[in-house]
Design a protein that fits this description.
Layout: H1 10-21, H2 25-31, H3 36-43, H4 51-60, H5 65-74, H6 92-105, E1 110-113, E2 119-122, H7 124-129, H8 144-149, H9 161-179, H10 182-192, E3 222-226, E4 229-238, H11 246-249, E5 252-258, H12 261-271
Antiparallel strand pairs: 1-2, 1-5, 3-4, 4-5
């Protein structure tokens, strides 16, 4: 559920998205083959946009699919995009594709989450990293943020937890600002309140220092200790292109790619 509501009217909603994207009325009009005057009239409630124009405006503003339905409702139209449950028979091809992708990434860890970071599917690489996590935290539905940052979850094994925690919380804050999801906000409030746990090796975490030299990687790595070996990963997130269903639009495939040769060697040896 989001705070976007038909009660707000399509004009304020459209103006809000345009402001969020920092696009002027003229820029949006040129992109959507309209006029700045017409865009102004829509935003002030003096004109009602046609359904196709509204969808074009939403596309050029990169409005999430779920929020496009809200724009349509606010303008008096029926929702255009279904929200089919992933276990529906119609989603068989999606489920099969996800399973093939996850298996194809093994032995490297990979998982699929929804818009609230609920884990939809995960491969054996992920389960290897979660070895030792208490069973009570592994009871479905699993949440990737909770599993990662909970003091009894993966957090004690993350060598650079302060940096990685800051990265994840900032990522969630950006998403909340975009979609204003109550469910996502609840997850954020929970995990942001978690204290830093004791490290698995007994050492103390050190807060990031701005004077520290940069990581010798092209992106912030996730450094996890597993059976005495420090594994380094770079996270990559993929989504489905041009989705026409809310459920599919909100799925994200996260892969943890080895960031150094030692991690590659370790994962391949454990798989063998």
């Amino acid at each position: 559920m989001t705070t976007t509501s038909a009660d707000q009217g399509v004009g304020p909603l459209l103006r809000g998205w345009r402001g969020h994207r920092r696009i002027t009325q003229l820029e949006l009009a040129l992109r959507a083959d309209s006029s700045a005057r017409h865009i102004s009239f829509i935003e002030t409630g003096r004109s009602r946009p046609g359904e196709e124009l509204l969808l074009r405006l939403a596309e050029h503003l990169d409005v999430p699919v779920r929020e496009r339905n809200a724009l349509l409702l606010a303008a008096g139209y029926a929702p255009r995009f279904a929200a089919t449950p992933l276990d529906d028979p119609a989603m068989g091809a999606v489920r099969q594709g996800i399973e093939q992708l996850l298996r194809g990434y093994e032995p490297y860890p990979a998982l699929v989450v929804d818009a609230s970071y609920t884990v939809v599917a995960a491969n054996r690489g992920i389960m290897m990293l979660l070895a030792g996590v208490p069973e009570r935290l592994l009871v479905p539905p699993l949440n990737a943020m909770r599993l990662t940052l909970h003091p009894e979850g993966l957090a004690p094994s993350i060598r650079n937890l302060p940096e990685w925690r800051g990265h994840l919380l900032t990522q969630m804050e950006r998403q909340i600002a975009l979609v204003r999801s109550d469910a996502l906000r609840a997850v954020y409030d929970e995990v942001a309140a978690y204290p830093l746990p004791e490290r698995a090796d007994g050492a103390r975490y050190r807060e990031p220092d701005p004077t520290d030299p940069p990581y010798p990687y092209f992106a912030l790595p996730l450094q996890v200790e597993h059976d005495g070996q420090v594994l380094s990963f770079i996270s990559s997130v993929s989504t489905f292109n041009t989705p026409l269903d809310v459920t599919v639009a909100e799925l994200a495939i996260e892969t943890l790619l080895p960031a150094d040769p030692a991690t590659v060697k370790y994962l391949q040896s454990t798989a063998a």
